[in-house]
Design goal:
Length: 382
């Protein structure tokens, strides 16, 4: 059972409990087993998966989202379900046990989600299946992903309601090279919580990318003035925003010591490393925790490409694009891969897709135009 991720880490889980449903009747273990496998394995193909997914859910389904993070069970809300959650290209379900309970059955199993042969999520689940109006339905569900338990992230020191969600949106924009969006979110967070140091990250990233050193220094000093209640990881990460590469790397190392699982710290640190193999090893830990994360897969793709491993590079660019279909940088990066692999037609397609996804990505359009000019000249010279 696939659900839309709610945080930068892309984590989801559900719970089960007993319930009474109308329209029951004694179930067949074979039917229950086949339903459980088929319903979950059919959750691929974007929009093509929606009807089958919804048809297998009870209107009274109770779901427990991410139980390891102190959440509580809630009635599942299927409103707004779209195809974006069903981006994997294949799913494999192993049912370990079916416990028959008359008109209900409890199923234990494991789900492995794949993109291009790579396991992106490994989930153990337990759920209750019953029959409603003659059809089998999931009535209770719990799934726990094996990457759920990390605590070593760059958590924000704020009590602002809704702050964590907005903070993750800001960081996603930063890692997806959407710096203006990151700054806009950052501006809003700074206004809502004037004492929150890492609310300034989006602003700092924007001025760093623009090479506006005076403005960057101004914002950094303001953020550091708010670090009294911030974590060591937050303080060191803020101090890493400098044009002095050696100083920046040292601050990132210190931040990584205190937040070892944080994907942004590892991606930023790896980006500055000339040793591609070391960079890949630094990134692997972040990827193991968050195998669908756009920024992590993007950086791994470039580092593998720089190291000459085009096969692995392609897998990470494919994951980036499939799991982050709304991010223009996913296609722009894939285009860079295809240029290096010599497939200029495919590269042009990817650059144009980046531009079609976001018309502000004119640099991608210009890349496609340069490829077209090159192909035209080559054709005329034959």
């Amino acid at each position: 059972m696939k659900t839309t991720p709610i945080i930068i880490l892309a984590i989801s889980a559900f719970a089960f409990a007993a319930c009474n449903q109308t329209g029951g009747g004694k179930l067949s273990e074979e039917d229950v087993r086949n339903f459980a496998i088929t319903h979950i394995e059919s959750q691929v193909g974007y929009e093509d998966a929606i009807d089958g997914f919804l048809n297998g859910l009870s209107d009274e389904l109770i779901a427990w989202t991410n139980p390891v993070w102190r959440s509580t069970p809630n009635k599942y809300n299927s409103e707004g379900t779209d195809g974006s959650a069903f981006y994997e290209d294949s799913i494999k379900v192993s049912v370990h046990d079916v416990y028959m309970m008359g008109s209900h059955a409890n199923v234990f199993g494991t789900v492995r989600f794949y993109i291009d042969g790579v396991t992106t999520t490994y989930r153990n689940f337990s759920g209750i299946i019953g029959k409603e109006n003659g059809k089998l339905k999931w009535q209770r569900w719990m799934g726990v992903d094996n990457q759920n338990l990390a605590q070593g992230f760059l958590w924000p020191s704020t009590e602002l309601e809704g702050g964590l969600s907005a903070y993750n949106d800001m960081r996603n924009a930063m890692m997806n090279v959407e710096f203006e969006l990151a700054k806009a979110i950052s501006d809003t967070l700074v206004e809502k919580d004037p004492n929150w140091a890492t609310a300034h990250l989006g602003q700092m990233q924007y001025y760093w990318a623009k090479k506006d050193d005076s403005k960057l220094q101004e914002v950094m000093e303001l953020a550091l003035s708010k670090c009294e209640n911030a974590s060591r990881a937050e303080k060191h990460f803020i101090q890493s925003y400098t044009q002095d590469r050696e100083t920046g790397q040292r601050e990132l190392e210190l931040a990584m010591m205190h937040a070892p699982d944080d994907p942004m710290i590892r991606v930023w640190y790896a980006w500055n490393l000339e040793d591609n193999k070391l960079a890949i090893d630094i990134l692997k830990r972040a990827w193991w925790r968050l195998p669908e994360h756009g920024g992590v897969n993007n950086m791994l793709g470039y580092k593998y490409m720089a190291d000459g491993n085009m096969e692995k590079a392609k897998k990470h660019f494919e994951i980036f694009a499939r799991a982050n279909a709304e991010v223009p940088n996913a296609y722009d990066s894939y285009g860079d891969y295809y240029i290096q692999s010599g497939d200029y037609e495919k590269a042009k397609e990817m650059f144009l897709k980046a531009y079609d996804t976001d018309k502000s990505w004119t640099a991608s359009k210009e890349k496609a135009e340069r490829i077209e000019e090159r192909m035209t000249r080559a054709s005329s010279e034959e």
